[in-house]
Amino acid sequence: MINITVIGNSAAGLAAVEAIRKIDKNIPINVISKEGGAAYSRVLLPYVLRGKVAYENMTIRSGSYYEDLKINYIEDEVTKLNTETKSVTLANGTEVPYGKLLIATGSNPVKPPIEGINADGIYHMWTKEDLDGLRPHFESGKRMAVIGSGFVSLQAAWAAVYKGLEVTVIELANRIMPNVIDDKGAEILSDKIRSFGVDLRTETLTTSIEKLDDGNFKIHMKDKEPVIVDCIVVGTGVRPNIQFLEGSSVTVDRGIPVNEFMETNVQDIYASGDVACGPTTFGEKNIIHALWPTALEMGEHAGINMIGEKTAYEGSLNMNVTQMYDLTVASMGRFSDALDHQTYIFPETAGKGYLKVSYDDGIMAGACLVGSTEAVKILGRLRPLIKEKKKIDICPEKLEMYLQINAFASVDRA
Amino acid sequence: MKVITIDSNKCVGCRNCEMACAYQRTQETCAYSESNIKINHFIEERILLPMTCLHCEDAPCMTVCPAKAISKDEELGVIVIDKNKCAGCKMCMLVCAYGNIHFDHEALVSRKCNLCEGNPKCVGHCISGALQFEELETVMEKERLKTDERIKSFLRKHGE
Amino acid sequence: MAKEIKKSCCRMCGMLCGIDVHVEDGRVVEIEGNKNYVANNGRICIKGSSGLSQLYHKDRLMKPLKKVNGEFVEIELEQAMDEIAAKLKQLQETYGTASVGVWKGEGTGFAQQEELARRFTHAIKTPNYFSNDTQCYAGRYISYNLNYGTWPAADFRNSKLAVIWGTNAPASHSYWTQDINAGREKGGKLVVIDTMYTDMARVADLYIQIKPGTDGVLAWGLIQQLIKQAVIDEEFIATYTHGYAELEAYAKMFTPEYVEKYTGVSQAQLQEVVDLYKVATPHVSSWCGTGLEHQTNGVSNVRTVAYIDALIGAVDVPGSMVTLDGFGASHLEIELDDELVELAIGKKEYPVLYGQRGECHTLLLMDQILSEKPYPFKGLVMTAANPALTNANSQKVVEALSALELLVVKDLYMTETAKLADYILPAASYLERSEIQYSGINQTVKLTEQVVDLGLQNEYDLFKGLADRLGAADLIPWKNEEAMNRWLVEPTGISYEDLAAHRDGYQYKPLTYNKIQGAHANGKTPFNTKTGKIEFTSEYLRDMGYEPLAKYTSVPVYIDRPETDYPLVLMTGARKVMYFHGRYRNIEQINKVMPEGLVELHPDDAMNLNVQEGDRVRVVTENGAIEIKVKVLHEAEIFPGAIQITHGFAKANVNMLVGDGTRDPISGFPALKSVPARVEKI
Q1: How many domains does one find in chain C?
Q2: What is the extent of the structural domain holding B131?
Q3: pLDDT of residue C207 exceeding 90
Q4: B47: which chain C residues are within 8 Å (Cβ-Cβ)?
């Protein structure tokens, strides 16, 4: 094999590269990065904005990383994939041949169809560039609007609140954070958000964004009073970066479908991370999680599979956690109210805040938390049980105890 | 390389380990909540579970950390959190299957056992002998977290 | 930076764990367990490592203090010693030599400290030696000595069955937990009999919850069944014991039905215990704690439990109660003239206490100070004790000590008792002294290293200094503590230097079994009792006019004469791991774990009282009332109807609730663990 070429320099790509180097110290590796600059995790962006993490500490790979791992780092955009010649074309015209290719190009935020959305000064919460653009606005007294109330958007809003900005959050749906918590959790979190003085507007359609002469923005909403702000963050979903695959033989369906070995439909081409739709622990074949831990796992498996040892990925388990509005918000697996599952909500006296676990006939399916930090450990201990599909028989009041005992005993069995 | 082993059959829940850990860490309090080692006592089931970081071989906390704040000291075999890099995002808490990562609510960072630089205070203060600090090779033959009969029968009862 | 490790024994409690004290540039920086010391195998508890905080505590007394017009002023040590001696002399001349005495506490006093205090007492011609041991330890000492003529040690490490009565090793005898676990690891079983589900109980194979104060009945019931089910060792009984016929006759009435009704222990549980004995005998050890001792039937309770070991021949065989060899060191006690001995306070009322222990009675002392009958008692030199906080009937203690003409208190801190003193002398802590310490069953002796010298007077210098000034210099002749240590070690066969070279401990003789069997084979009487045998019926007691058999006659007051005003039974003194009686509330990091006293309730009782965790309540007894915070336990953790308050918390001092009038007739111990009480919602 002439080389392994990885398109993408973030979670999935680097996890793959490190997995490969654990097995093979010598095979040539290319890493092609469009964004350039040192690798960082976008998970950290809100923490940098809030001031918890120093700007310099955002990078997660040192300067000599590529040299130490004998990686050929190429900073450019891939514009075309040539499966017949087994090469990729870069924006500068160069062709880079590959022996095996990993597409780990991640995803990018989509802009909703709102008039005026493309003006300068409207950011996402996705890249370092966004961060650099937002930071000057993060001063006490300034005003910010956040369009969208997903996991990332609300973290941005929290960072702004924390820094003393006046914040408006505009959400089209009738509740916040559609994917990460359940209805009750959303209700509790919404109350908390409002208690911090945030103007949270659900069921609100943004009709247009007007840039004013002084550089500020006036946001117009249907049937609501407009609001004037200094800056705007838009977080209304992401889309996999697959533009360069147009015309290639790689199957795409929103993202790139892969099997349990991270293989696409084309031999020697793999995909991982936000760009890929892979298997989940619940048996779904092709789902995009767009989550940091999933990207790491998929990348690692791609790397191992690319270097030869066929290792099936047991499937991703969605999980999220963050600190915001003096609460810990976290979830894992399947917990939606729409499911036909049994649920148990921990009592107030347990001191965990709102913690719901969801299970199906004794098999743990998921949990959702808007409450205390301690309760995150319950989710952590739940994770192996969700993955193993182990059937347990215990009254829910004793679930926490069961989890602790099982965790202890699992080391013995390991 | 030495590891902490736990014999649940010997633990009496005196909590000397928690007090020693809390004080070692904070230098100002022995309060149990400040400890990194935790004693879980289930009275009705008569089960006592000391639990402390296992410094896993392929530590999930280290892999997942988006700030690269968690690293391994190869010599001691210790997984450590750099509190200057930690963002307090709690992903490590979410991926630890044993609940061994805790939170420092003042510094707003995650915290965990760091084996006290190779001389774990919890072991030094374990007056029952439940905690030992042993060479990894000798532990391979025994169990690292030794479950007793009460634990085994509890798990059997609830769906092992 | 000069770094070294000095070896000593911890004295943060009475267990004397071997410690490695890390010293940098002359300053202690850390205290760890000594891995080479046979008793604790390198382990230490939080009190032990916190000895560092105590050593340099900002509140340590550093200069002698004299009370002048109600205020304490600093004075020089020489002046203090001169004045104290002069006052003692004056009191003895005015009121008689017995009008003064010495009180040794637990804060510094074990083994040679106690002997030294006793020597000084007699050296200045008074019989009045008092100590904390008359509220803990002396009762059991008497019990075992009445039975055996000695106090055998429990060979837990090799026990096939260990039976623990009313004591919680993890909190009170830390490294015995290791030993008991070592026995369990080999397949040994553990039974814990206790009114509360203690730390020790958590690992017991069989936990038996028992009604407070009724352990004696359970023990007799167990004896009755062991006899009935032929578990006893008839040959051993015939060879080594005395009084079996009376024991067997008395035991008959303690049927399982009777035991169940009286103690709350079911017949099924009793049989489980018997079954465990059947399998394990004779490799059985037992231990009784203050749960049995602090009762009106205290001495008899413990004697009864000790009977069981003798009945099954669990003496001097592996895993049983083993007799020990002494080190052979000299003893410091000296005789006193008979006329003076007769004046010993409490000797008439508690002749066994005085006869077996040479101890006077602290509770009667308080009455005598206040009444001046039968003669005035006016001066007390007290070291390392805080009875204003930790003796029964605190109110009376304060009143009495305040009425003394001379109260000298030597301590590390300004304690509640020190506040009452005329003179306060700062004490050197264990890290500032070199002492000879023993580790019982390990038959190991250690000469501790003086780790630092803070320039404070140790106990030896106190007693020598006073003796010199009171004309008794020849009786305490050694220049300093080291010289005394040398003298003590002389007859042992090991030199002082050699002992000093064994800083990890010197085993003077390995533990051997079958000593009594060997002695018997050589025609010697193996036991130091009147008959030379293990006495079920104590001839010593018979001579004194007491019932010789340990009958269950002195029934706890709350059972004997229940009162509707006091429907609950108050137990006191459950040990907490991080404290030692009245000490260490002032170690800040430890204080944060348990900052205040608590009354521990069964959840049913809490519900009936309509109180919740954290509420403040008033606990009332005949002796007094205190306000205290509530802790509601799990229903399995305490006998219903019983409440527990740990002592040593000045703001919720349970000794204000415990009267001094209800006592064991033999030891004179106050009944600290079954006080009729009620709880009132505030």
Answers
A1: 3
A2: 2-158
A3: yes
A4: none
> In Å, how far is C673's CA from the nearest CA of chain B?
22
The CATH number of whichever domain residue C266 belongs to comes to 3.40.228.10
Nearest to A43 among B63, B89, B103 (CB): B89
Mind listing the pLDDT tens digit for each residue in B91-141? 999 999 999 999 999 999 999 999 999 999 999 999 999 999 999 888 877
**Residues C386, C250 share a domain:** no
For chain B, the helix, strand and coil percentages under 3-state DSSP, each to the nearest 5: 30, 25, 50
Q: Taking Cα atoms as reference points, which of C511, C498, C506 lies closest to residue C323? A: C511
Residues C225 and C345 in one domain: no
C111: pLDDT strictly greater than 70: no
Task: Provide the mean pLDDT of chain C.
Answer: 96
Residues of chain B contacting residue C584, judged by C-beta atoms under 8 Å apart: none
Does residue C13 lie within any of the structural domains? Answer: no
Per the domain annotation, does C550 fall within a domain? no
Q: Which of C238, C272, B49 is nearest to A381 (CA)?
A: B49
Residue C442 belongs to what domain range? Answer: 65-137+341-477
- Together in a domain, C98 and C170: no
**Contact between B90 and A373 using a beta-carbon 8 Å cutoff:** yes
pTM across the whole model: 0.96
Which of C292, C322, C352 is the C-terminal boundary of a domain?
Answer: C322
Q: Confirm if C221 and C270 have CB atoms less than 8 A apart.
A: yes
d(CA C380, CA C395): 18
Residue C287 lies in a domain: yes
Same domain? For C122 and C162 the reply is no
Which tokens belong to A260?
Answer: 């349990």
Q: Name the amino acid, one letter, at A320.
A: N
- In chain B, whose CA is at the least distance from the CA of C170? B14
Compute how many other C-beta atoms are within 10 angstroms of the C-beta atom of residue C462: 23
Residue C641 burial (C-beta neighbours within 10 Å; 0-12, 13-18, 19+): middle
φ and ψ at residue C608, rounded to 5 degrees: -60, -35
ipTM of the complex in this document: 0.96
Q: Residue A414 has what pLDDT? A: 47
The reply to whether C285 and C360 lie within a common domain is: no
Closest C-chain CA to B47: C202
Would residue C645 count as lying in a domain? yes
Mark whether C151 and C283 lie in a shared domain.
Answer: yes
Residue A112 has pLDDT above 70, yes or no: yes
Residues near C462 by beta carbon (within 8 Å), at least 6 away in sequence: C381, C383, C410, C425
Q: Could you read off the pLDDT of B57-103 as tens digits, one per residue? A: 889 999 999 999 999 998 889 999 999 999 999 999 999 999 999 99
pLDDT digits (tens, 9 = 90+) for C455-504: 999 999 999 999 999 999 999 999 999 999 999 999 999 999 999 999 99
CATH of the domain at C384: 3.40.50.740
The reply to whether C195 and C127 lie within a common domain is: no
- Against chain A, the chains showing at least 3 CB pairs within 8 Å are B
pLDDT per residue as tens digits for the range C181-200:
999 999 999 999 999 999 99
Chain B residues in contact with A405 (beta carbon < 8 A): 42, 47, 49, 151, 154-155
Closest to B91 (Cβ–Cβ): which among A321, A392, A406? Answer: A321
Quote the pLDDT of residue C108. Answer: 67
Q: How confident is the model at residue C121 (pLDDT cuts 50, 70, 90)?
A: very high
CA-based nearest distance B28→chain A, Å: 22
Helices (H), C378-502: 387-390, 394-403, 459-469, 481-489, 496-501
Inter-CA distances, C329 with A294, C120, C217, C448, C460, Å: 72, 19, 40, 16, 17
Q: Per the structure, how many domains does chain B have? A: 1
User: Would you say A351 and A361 are in contact if contact means Cβ atoms under 8 Å apart?
Assistant: no
Please, are residues C676 and C621 in contact by the beta-carbon 8 Å criterion? Answer: yes
pLDDT band at A22 (very low <50, low <70, confident <90, very high): very high
Is the domain of C131 the same as that of C153?
no
pLDDT for A45 = 93
